[in-house]
Structure formats: C-alpha cells, structure tokens
Write a structure and sequence with these properties.
The chain is mainly alpha-helical. It has one domain (about 5-115). It contains five helices and no strands.
C-alpha cells in the first residue's frame, strides 16, 4: 500500500531536516579548528588598521570605507559592515570574525541546497 500524501510530506520534511543537519555538522567539522587561528594576509589592513569598523554609529563611514583601508574592504560595503559587526562583538579577538564567516558559509550552503531541487524556468 503506498504511503499517504501526508506521510510522504512528513518523510520529505525529515529528509530535508536531516540533510540540513548533515550540512551544518560538516561545516562545523571543517571549520572547528579555525577559531583560535590568528589574523592572516589582508586581515591587518582590513581589520587591525581599519578605523572605519571601530564605530557602528557612523554607518556612512562603515558603508563607504574609501580607499587606503586595505584592498579587501575598498568598494565592498557589506564586507566592511560585517567586519564592523564583528569588531563590535569582540574587538580584535578573532573568534567573532571566524564565527560570522562560518555562519555565512552555513547559510550559503543551506540556501544553495534548498534551491537545488527546485525547477528553474530560465
């Protein structure tokens, strides 16, 4: 006897939840050892030497960092905003920057995987 539509939908939801949990666990496993890692490469000009991330109260400065604060943040307002949010959480301690990066990767993976089964009409 075939499964009823409601039980098939419930099973489908559990499959989605299970796949999402596996994706989150895989991301945590991949990134778990990055939290104590120091700032590297372009982090010094983008974070340590970047005065535009020091105060969230001046959103114009945060969203328009201008030139000279590191190639990474020049012309990238959302990046500078995310760095400002991390700075507001932990200053120059690396954990918040790594946590936000992990969260962004997990959300991107969940978003991408959620759209994989959807038909595209082009």
């Amino acid at each position: 006897m075939p499964a009823s539509p409601s039980s098939a939908a419930a099973l489908s939801r559990w499959v989605v939840v299970g796949c999402a949990a596996i994706l989150v666990l895989a991301a945590l496993a991949a990134y778990h050892n990055t939290f104590p890692a120091p700032f590297l490469f372009d982090d010094t000009p983008a974070i340590l030497d970047n005065p535009t991330i020091r105060h969230l109260g001046d959103l114009k400065e945060v969203l328009l960092p201008g030139e000279g604060y590191g190639i990474t943040v020049s012309g990238r307002p959302m990046l500078n905003l995310s760095l400002a949010l991390c700075y507001a959480m932990s200053g120059t301690h690396v954990w918040s920057y790594h946590a936000l990066n992990l969260l962004i990767h997990i959300l991107a993976g969940l978003t991408c995987s959620a759209s994989c089964g959807e038909p595209w009409d082009g």
